[in-house]
């Protein structure tokens, strides 16, 4: 099964974003955190900055919208060419219609849930999404500790996508390090956002270490263990 490492530029040097993007070329996508100071108590960047990142980034953009009223704002990120647009279930009034709109524009549609939000209500609409983001910290800030209590949601999502043969990516975001990436991969995650653990060192080395750690732990290992 393919896995992806998506560094979060929330932990990058905002004064040198172009060189920071170059430093993570060996990753798969670049994770861009948009915060509006309403949905989360922090403020980052908006559409004009993301549009410029889209123009210069060697990697496709994985945009994570931590904003209120995604129905109003999310399509604009798809229109500037973001490869994937994630909006939060807690903020959306109609996730299915919004996801269809994002796909119509040409982006991958992705649904995020905060640590305390149950995933069961969304399992029956899983086919409407290209990715589900299970937040493994409370959204808003980098550098927080991984919340292992979110892992059962990945197990449920992984079982559901297998049952229906869906090609939906399962992303984790928050506290992902070489120590925690394994349990997330074993639970079914295949797409890993890492901010501080990439940019606190030499990014290319950190990406390689995360990739190696993830490859040793996949959902198929879980099956092997269970069937023994
Ligand atoms: C937090 C953001 C994350 C953040 C992760 O709300 O959504 O993408 O950058 O940072 P780390 O990997 O440091 O937990
Ligand atoms: Zn994020």
Strand content: 15-25%
The N- and C-terminal alpha carbons lie at a distance of 21 Å
CATH superfamily: Aldolase class I
Number of helices: 10
Q: Please provide the count of β strands.
A: 8
Helix and strand element order: EHEHEHEHEHEHEHEHHH
Mean pLDDT: 96
Lateral arrangement of strands in the main beta sheet: 1-8-7-6-5-4-3-2
What share of the residues lie within helices? 25-40%
User: Are any ligands bound, and if so which?
Assistant: D-xylitol-5-phosphate, zinc ion
- Which stretches are low in confidence, meaning pLDDT under 50 for 5 or more residues running? none
Number of domains: 1
Description:
With 228 residues, this protein is an alpha/beta fold. It has one domain (4-227): Aldolase class I (TIM Barrel), CATH 3.20.20. Helices cover 39% and strands 18% of the residues. It has ten helices and eight strands. An eight-stranded parallel β-sheet has the order 1-8-7-6-5-4-3-2. Strand 7, helix 7 and strand 8 (191-194) form a beta-alpha-beta unit. The radius of gyration is 16 Å and the shape is globular. The model has no long low-confidence stretch (mean pLDDT 96). The protein binds D-xylitol-5-phosphate and zinc ion. Zinc ion binds next to strand 2. Its EC number is 5.1.3.1. Belongs to the ribulose-phosphate 3-epimerase family. GO terms for molecular function: D-ribulose-phosphate 3-epimerase activity; metal ion binding.
């Amino acid at each position: 099964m393919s896995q992806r490492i998506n560094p979060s530029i929330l932990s990058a040097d905002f004064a040198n974003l172009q060189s920071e993007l170059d430093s993570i070329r060996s990753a798969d996508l670049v994770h861009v955190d948009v915060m509006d100071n309403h949905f989360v108590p922090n403020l980052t960047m908006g559409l004009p900055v993301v549009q410029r990142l889209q123009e210069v980034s060697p990697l496709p953009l994985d945009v994570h919208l931590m904003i209120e009223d995604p129905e109003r704002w999310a399509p604009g990120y798809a229109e500037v060419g973001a490869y994937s647009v994630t909006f939060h279930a807690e903020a959306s009034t109609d996730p299915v219609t919004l996801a269809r709109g994002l796909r119509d524009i040409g982006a991958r549609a992705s649904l995020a849930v905060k640590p305390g939000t149950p995933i069961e209500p969304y399992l029956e609409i899983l086919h409407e999404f290209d990715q589900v983001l299970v937040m493994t910290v409370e959204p808003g800030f980098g550098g927080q500790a991984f919340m292992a209590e979110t892992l059962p949601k990945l197990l449920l999502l992984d079982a559901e996508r297998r049952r229906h043969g869906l090609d939906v990516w399962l992303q984790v975001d928050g506290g992902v390090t070489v120590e925690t990436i394994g349990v997330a991969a074993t639970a079914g995650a295949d797409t890993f956002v890492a901010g501080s653990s990439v940019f606190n060192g030499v990014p290319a080395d950190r990406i390689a270490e995360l990739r190696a750690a993830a490859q040793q732990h996949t959902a198929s290992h879980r099956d092997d263990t269970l069937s023994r």
